[in-house]
């Protein structure tokens, strides 16, 4: 696949003046590329004037509370609504039967499956939606829900993918015709024969099992909506916490049968998404159905435990990695086995299709000649999900696997983990690079990033300290861990995402008004990433306007151009590209108007990026600014141009972008308590040309916090009956500022050659890249005693057990200077 596929509007894609130089701080101070513009949206957030779904109040608005199953696996024998309906203020109680009347009993999952909106027959995971109570206020709805009487016949549950595949395991999906097992599909990628050959010929091979635990995105704002059926205009308006409003509009229309132009989705301010708000959930369908039936607006907002227990989880991959290498540490082949838990409904996508196919990036930043992966997926009695949590859709698991395996190999060969990386990096001259599993990496310079990282952390000094402390039998073990990962973001061209025939584009529309300010509407949707600022910066750069003169709007399907939304860090790679190209279309037209104003031929006009104005070639003192051109476009447009100054672009990217990073984590492991202290976390990210370094730093800080939490604290756990044992913030350990160490951020710039402004995405890199650096550091601290692996989350008890097994724990009797028999004197 060529990264230079010609597109119809190719002339706008590459900038005639070479494009912005984000390394340079531009003199004109308009807030263009590379400037640390303060986020425009923060004015309303820090003054308490954000507008989230739960802030929306409408006349006659009713509230919905969902009755959920206490059991993970059970038949629903009967539902009695009577007592609930007798509660003062309860307006309606809905069950699957009621929804079936409107053909709304089921809804599609993200991939190849249908999920009950309310349980029709059998509950398949704990807290699944069984009935819904609609009432005049939230508390009455909840009281009513307590009074709905549901009789269950319980069944044995299975919550572990491996056990689910045993022959006598409880069958989760007896609703699928002729289905007799919990196995969903097998997926293979790469060249099996070539990989087997590489293993036969190898000097050394290593193998390691690892489990990437189930975790859950936990946006501060849970999911919710306000559905409002307008009986007069037969129009459904849904305010929804959505990462992809247009895609949700299409889904809503398909599920409900309401024509798409009569569905309006508004995603107002979104209090974090992290992938949790990509899918649609039963609560949305219930609220919309209730509003349709009752004819009043209906609000549904989840509680925290409902969010953790029922909305999409992430990861849950059991992986076995094998690496074949020469005795000098040159990797010859990688072979991977995966067992994926997809929960009770297959919402996690077959990996042969986007998005889960991104696991194919498991050869990482290394020039690996042969690679093969076989993956099996299973149903269990757990909430559906598996793709999304700041993850780039299974890239997180792939990065974890390869970055851990490189460390394992370095231990087998007794080589320095930095050195072995350097030996295997794809050299910078090799880009665009074709990977063994079929990606075309656009650009990279991994060695420069690693060198900068080693220098910044004083790597040699750290190794010396490590040895010195070992020699002194120090109570704390020092460990140094690396992750030199490659990300893949910007979904993306259909061919590469393996979605047959579906091209993933995004869009931007720019209107420059007569007095020289502009409204920009985009198809992607911010959930905290700062698009209202950074997308304005792209336009400011391209049109020479002041960033303060540009308003960015998004999240309203009635007004914004159709887009596929924000996930997989695709906003900059795809939506940002659309914005730059739309701006260049505006500039192209503006040039013709400028020529008319200056009474010269268009060929004699040049765009001067530094002053943001058109000039007559060779006479820089004769020029017009974009503001002047804007006025002229409405008042004095030349004969060959329509009046007005606007453009729209639907950008269909020729390739994904491949950002990368070099992370170094330094830990101290307490031999007495098993506690891990992250002493240093250094993160170098290369996301190509940078739009706003401050926003990037914020993204990296937030993403690292989540990666650190993954490595150290978070896991959704179950007991054998399928009860969620970490279903609230008492038990699901979200970190606070106290648990997050100081972080050092850094960068290199390797522009994307196919992106109009050379930018790559960055939003997920820190979460994707950091966990293996931390695990590698903890393993490194214990490597001298032969420790090869420890699973996440690395809680003190787990670390202590590994220390203990390796003979590294401290004997308390040796530590304290009194004998066991001696008692301290009392005085
Ligand atoms: N940026 C930049 N220069 C670049 C690349 C990015 O200045 N070369 C800026 C962008 O303009 C944008 C921000 O950094 O303002 C993130 O851009 P990008 O990497 O394109 O990612 P998206 O905007 O598509 O955000 C999605 C990504 C994902 S998938 C998850 S999950 C996630 C994340 O962003 N969820 C978040 N970061 C989050 N941050 C917040 N606050 N809240 C979430 O829910
Ligand atoms: Cu993978 S979580 Mo984000 O892509 O919305």
Automatic annotation (TrEMBL):
The residues covered by the Aldehyde oxidase/xanthine dehydrogenase a/b hammerhead domain are 47-156
Keywords, comma-separated and alphabetical: Molybdenum, Oxidoreductase
**InterPro entries reported in the protein's UniProt record:** Ald_Oxase/Xan_DH_a/b, Ald_Oxase/Xan_DH_a/b_sf, Ald_Oxase/xanthine_DH-like, AldOxase/xan_DH_MoCoBD1, AldOxase/xan_DH_MoCoBD2, AldOxase/xan_DH_Mopterin-bd_sf, CO_Mo_DH_lsu
Q: Where is the composition biased (Basic and acidic residues)?
A: 1-26
Q: Name one Pfam family in it.
A: Ald_Xan_dh_C
Disordered: annotated span: 1-44
Q: Look up keyword Oxidoreductase and say if it applies.
A: yes
The protein's GO terms of the molecular function aspect are: anaerobic carbon-monoxide dehydrogenase activity; copper ion binding; iron ion binding; molybdenum ion binding
Sorted alphabetically, which SUPFAM superfamilies does this protein's record hold? CO dehydrogenase molybdoprotein N-domain-like (SSF54665), Molybdenum cofactor-binding domain (SSF56003)
NCBIfam families documented for this protein: CO_dehy_Mo_lg
Q: Which PANTHER family match?
A: ALDEHYDE OXIDASE 1-RELATED, XANTHINE DEHYDROGENASE
Q: What is this protein called?
A: Carbon-monoxide dehydrogenase large subunit
Q: Which organism does this sequence originate in?
A: Salinigranum rubrum
State the taxonomy lineage: Archaea, Methanobacteriati, Methanobacteriota, Stenosarchaea group, Halobacteria
């Amino acid at each position: 696949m060529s990264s230079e596929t010609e597109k119809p509007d190719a002339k706008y894609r590459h900038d005639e003046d070479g494009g912005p130089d984000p390394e340079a701080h531009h003199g004109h101070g308009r807030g263009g590329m590379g400037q640390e513009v303060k986020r425009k949206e923060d004015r309303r957030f820090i003054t308490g004037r954000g507008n989230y779904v739960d802030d929306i109040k409408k006349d006659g608005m009713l509230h919905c509370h969902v009755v959920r199953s206490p059991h993970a696996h059970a038949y629903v024998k009967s539902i009695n609504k009577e007592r609930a309906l007798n509660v003062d203020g309860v307006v309606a109680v809905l069950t699957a039967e009621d929804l079936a009347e409107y053909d709304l009993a089921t809804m599609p999952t993200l991939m190849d499956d249908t999920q009950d909106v309310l349980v029709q027959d059998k509950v398949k995971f704990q807290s699944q939606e069984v009935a819904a109570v609609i009432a005049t206020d939230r508390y009455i709805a909840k009281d009513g829900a307590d009074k709905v009487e549901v009789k269950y016949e319980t069944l044995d549950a299975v919550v572990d993918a491996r056990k689910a595949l045993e022959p006598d395991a409880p069958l989760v999906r007896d609703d699928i015709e002729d289905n007799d097992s919990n196995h969903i599909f097998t997926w293979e990628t790469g060249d099996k024969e070539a990989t087997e050959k590489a293993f036969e010929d190898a000097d050394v091979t290593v193998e390691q099992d690892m489990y990437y635990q189930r975790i859950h995105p936990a946006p501060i704002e849970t999911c919710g909506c306000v559905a409002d059926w307008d009986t007069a205009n037969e129009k459904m308006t849904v305010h929804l916490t959505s990462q992809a409003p247009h895609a949700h509009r299409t889904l809503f229309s398909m599920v409900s049968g309401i024509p798409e132009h009569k569905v309006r989705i508004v995603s107002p301010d979104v209090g974090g998404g992290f992938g949790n708000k990509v899918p649609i959930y039963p609560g949305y369908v219930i609220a919309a159905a209730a509003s349709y039936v009752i004819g009043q607006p209906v609000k549904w907002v989840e509680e925290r435990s409902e969010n953790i227990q029922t909305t999409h989880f992430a990861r849950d991959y059991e992986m076995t990695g094998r690496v074949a290498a020469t005795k000098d540490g040159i990797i010859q082949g990688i072979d991977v086995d995966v067992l994926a838990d997809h929960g009770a409904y297959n919402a996690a996508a077959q990996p042969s299709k986007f998005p889960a196919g991104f696991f194919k990036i498991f050869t990482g930043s290394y020039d690996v000649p042969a690679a093969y992966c076989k993956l099996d997926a299973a149903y269990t009695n757990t909430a559906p999900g598996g793709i999304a949590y700041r993850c780039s859709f299974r890239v997180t698991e792939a990065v974890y696997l390869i970055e851990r395996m490189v460390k394992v190999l370095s231990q087998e060969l007794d080589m320095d983990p930095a050195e072995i990386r350097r030996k295997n990096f794809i050299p910078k001259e090799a880009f665009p690079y074709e990977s063994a599993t079929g990606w075309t990496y656009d650009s990279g310079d991994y060695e420069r990033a690693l060198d900068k990282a080693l220098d910044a952390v004083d790597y040699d000094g750290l190794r010396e300290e490590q040895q010195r402390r070992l020699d002194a039998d120090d109570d704390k073990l020092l460990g140094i861990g690396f992750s030199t990962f490659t990300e893949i973001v910007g979904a993306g061209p259909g061919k590469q995402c393996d979605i047959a025939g579906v091209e993933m584009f995004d869009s931007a529309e720019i209107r420059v008004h007569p007095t020289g300010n502009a409204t920009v509407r985009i198809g992607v949707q911010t959930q905290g990433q700062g698009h209202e600022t950074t997308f304005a910066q792209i336009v400011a750069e391209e049109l020479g306007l002041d960033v303060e003169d540009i308003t960015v709007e998004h999240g309203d399907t009635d007004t914004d151009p159709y887009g596929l939304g924000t996930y997989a860090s695709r906003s900059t790679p795809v939506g940002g590209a659309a914005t730059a190209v739309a701006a260049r279309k505006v500039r192209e037209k503006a040039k013709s108007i400028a020529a008319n104003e200056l009474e010269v031929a268009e060929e004699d006009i040049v765009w001067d990026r530094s002053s943001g104005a058109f000039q007559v070639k060779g006479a820089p003192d004769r020029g017009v600014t974009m503001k002047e051109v804007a006025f002229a476009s409405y008042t004095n447009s030349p004969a060959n141009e329509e009046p007005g100054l606007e453009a729209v672009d639907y950008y269909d990217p020729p390739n994904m972008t491949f950002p990368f990073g070099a992370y170094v984590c330094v830990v101290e492991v307490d031999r007495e308590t098993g506690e891990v202290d992250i002493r240093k976390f250094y993160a170098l990210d290369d996301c190509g040309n940078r739009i706003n370094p401050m926003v990037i730093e914020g993204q990296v800080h937030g993403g690292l916090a989540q990666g650190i939490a993954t490595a150290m604290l978070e896991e959704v756990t179950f007991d054998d009956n399928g009860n969620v044992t970490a279903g609230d913030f008492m038990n699901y350990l979200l970190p606070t500022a106290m648990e997050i160490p100081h972080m050092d951020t850094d960068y290199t710039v390797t522009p994307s050659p196919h992106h109009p402004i050379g930018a790559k995405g960055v939003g997920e890199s820190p979460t994707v890249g950091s966990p293996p650096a931390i695990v590698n550091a903890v393993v490194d601290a214990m490597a001298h005693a032969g420790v090869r692996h420890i699973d996440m989350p690395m809680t003190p008890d787990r670390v202590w057990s590994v220390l203990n097994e390796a003979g590294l724990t401290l004997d308390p009797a040796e530590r304290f200077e009194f004998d066991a028999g001696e008692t301290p004197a009392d005085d």
